[in-house]
Amino acid sequence: MMEKILVVGGAGYIGSHMVKALLDKNYPVLVLDNLSTGHSELLTGGEFVQGSLGDKDLMDRIFTANRIGAVMHFAAFSLVGESVQQPLKYYRNNITETIALIEAMVRHSVQRFIFSSTAALFGEPEYTPIDENHPCRPTNPYGVTKLCVERLLSDCDAAHGLKSICLRYFNAAGADASGAIGEMHEPESHLIPLILKNALTDTPIKIFGTDYPTPDGTCIRDYIHVTDLAQAHLLALQALLDGSQSCAYNLGNSIGYSVRQVIDLARKVTGKTIPALEEDRRPGDPAVLVADSAKIKRELNWVPRYEDLEKIIATAWKWHAR
Fold it and tell me: Structural domains in the chain?
C-alpha cells in the first residue's frame, strides 16, 4: 500500500493547490488544517482532519493510524505587517507548532519533510536576482520564524536523520486553470488579488511608494504561479523519496514586475479601468525582490509553465470573477 502524504495547512491557498497536484499524480493524501485561515471548500479530495499541530494526542493518532511517507508544511501565518504587530502569534504558530509536528515525526520515524519557506528570510537584498547563497537577514518576525524553522530542520537532520527540502517562494500568484480553486484570504494582502477584487468593485488600488530606485518608482517583485509552485513541491517530494539530501531552493520566475506594470496588466486582462491611489512607502518593503531559480531548474528539472504575468493574472481573474 502506498504511503500517504500528510499536507498540513492543506486547506489554504497554496496547500489546496498542492493537494490537487498530489491527487492528480495519484498520491494518497491526508490533510490536517485547523481552518483558522484555510477553507475546507478548497479541498478537491483526500482525507481531511480538522485540528492543531500542537495537539499531541491527535498527532500521535494520525501517525499511528496512517503510514505517512512524507510531510508537507503549509501551516504558517504569513502576513508580514501582522507579524510586526503580533510577533507572539507568529512565533507560537510558525515555530512552536512546527516543533510539535517535527517531534511527532521523530517519535514515529517519519523522515521526509517539505517546508514552505519564503524569500522574506533574505531581508533587504544585497544583490538581485537572489540565489540560495544570499545572506539571510530577515527584517520582520515572519521571515525570522521561517529562518528559525529552516535551521531547526538542519539540526534535526544532524540529530535524527530527518531529510528536508525548503522551498523559498517569492510572490505566489494565480489560480488553478480550472477556476475551481484559488486565493481566499481575509483580509487580503497580496497585490494581484487586491487589484482584481478592486476591479470587481471599482475601488481604487493603493500604490505604497512611488519613489523607489526602480524605472517607474514602484516596487518590483517576482511572481510565480501557484501551480508551478505545486509542481516544484512534487519534484522535491520525488527527490526525497529517491534519497535526496536536505537542501533549499529559491522559487520564482526570475522576472521582476513593478506595481504599476502589474496594475496595467490587470487592466488589460479585466478590461476595467482600475484607478490607483499613490500612498507613502510601507516600512520594510525592499525596492526589488527577484529570484534566481537556476538551482532547482538544474537539479530537479523544474520547468515553470506560467512565466508570463498576463497569463498568471488571467487565471486569478477567472477565479475572482467567478
Answer: 4-172+224-251 (3.40.50.720), 175-222+254-321 (3.90.25.10)
